[in-house]
Amino acid sequence: MPASPVKAVFFDIDDTLVDDAAATRAGALGLFDRCRDRLGECDERLMQRWITLLDHHFERYLRGESSFIGQRRARIRDLFGLSPDQMPDAEVDAIHEVYREFYYGAWRLFPDAVETLDALDGYRLGVISNGTSALQRRKLAAVGVLDRFAAVMISEDIGVAKPDPGIFEAACQAVGASPSACVHVGDRLDTDARGARDAGLTGVWLNRRGEDAGTLDVPAIERLTELPALVTRRRAS
Questions:
Q1: Exposed site from 28, 124, 172, 190, fewest CB < 10 Å?
Q2: How far apart (Å, rounded) are the C-alpha atoms in residues 218 and 229?
């Protein structure tokens, strides 16, 4: 690891601080229930289809192939198997409002988030997240941690998304620290941990599910509460 003393610690939001997977499932269950006459009974296959569509179209948005609203509409049309001619924008948006009602209402911090933020209080704390600025900031505010962060760096604002080095470099500049003095933790091995490492930060993989990724080239933890000790060791190195 680099030898510079740690000055700043950055966090991903979704499935790192906030249990977005659980909120996504809650939103989908609400949508499926309201649209049962068109989609049939909810089962795990339908849920996995929704999650796959969400990931696919969100990645298209991050690559600049679709607007945020465009990807949102595309995944709902794909869920129903309908074209824009068969499902106009107004109908799609009304269906998405159902999903959003349940999704927003299910935002929760992971139980280990506040304890970890408290333990790192002596560092400059920040967020590096892919997505839209308004939504991600609203999420942090809703779970009560927005004011914890000196810098909130969202891909929509920066113009590039993780794992592009530019968003990590912008975050370091925002807190006045060199990349070698910064740590970033997130649930995605390539997007968060390796992306941060390749930008000169210490990238940490939050492997909550205990996945086997083979030989790792970045530090890994299974709970956020393991992060302060890692940062302390890194600071002393």
A1: 190
A2: 16
- CA angle in degrees (0–180, nearest 5) for 218-194-72: 135
- How many beta carbons lie within 10 A of that of residue 193, not counting itself? 29
The Cα 127–Cα 152 span in angstroms is 5
Ramachandran angles phi, psi of 125, nearest 5°:
-110, 145
103-132 per-position pLDDT tens digit:
999 999 999 999 999 999 999 999 999 999
Instruction: Give the model confidence (pLDDT) of 185-202 as tens digits.
Output: 999 999 999 999 999 999
User: What span, in angstroms and rounded, lies between the C-alpha atoms of 19 and 34?
Assistant: 23
pTM of model > 0.85: yes
Calculate ∠ Cα 190-106-143, nearest 5°.
75
Q: How many CA atoms lie within 13 A of 45 on its CB side?
A: 3
Nearest to 172 by CA among 1, 26, 5, 9: 9
Q: What is the pLDDT of residue 60?
A: 95
Quick one: DSSP state of residue 19? Answer: -
